[in-house]
Design brief:
Layout (H helix, E strand, L loop, with lengths): L1 E8 L14 H17 L4 H6 L2 E2 L2 E8 L8 E8 L6 E9 L5 E10 L1 E2 L10 H10 L3 E2 L2
Parallel strand pairs: 1-8
Antiparallel strand pairs: 1-4, 2-7, 3-6, 4-5, 5-6
Length: 140
Amino acid sequence: MIKSELEIDVRYYETDQMGIVHHSNYIRYFECGRSDMMAKAGIPIDKIEAAGVVLPVISVECRYRMPAKMGDRIRVVTMIDKVPMAKLVIRNEIYGPSGSLLCEGKVVLGFLDGQTRRPVRCPEMLVKVFEERLCEHIND
């Protein structure tokens, strides 16, 4: 498994009038974790796109357990369990300041040719990085 962690401070604009994080922001936190993990692995999204491949979101799942609040420092854990072929499945868990699980989810990304927008297999550069790092905890 490839695993990465990112800490994020909950900002005022991410909350509702009661100081609770709006549910849509958890999907943004998932994306922050995913982008951070890919950059730490040496394959930032812009590098993948420069190689001619785009990664559209195919589906998102999110199960809410407890709310995050304004001023909390949350921990976004991002995980990849296997080398992708036609799609990349990324699992996420978000923890609150006390270590309690706030939400968990999954994002599925596809691979498209950047020019034709036709489906393609996972680029070899990504497969290689995933194979090399599949048993690592990325936190550098």
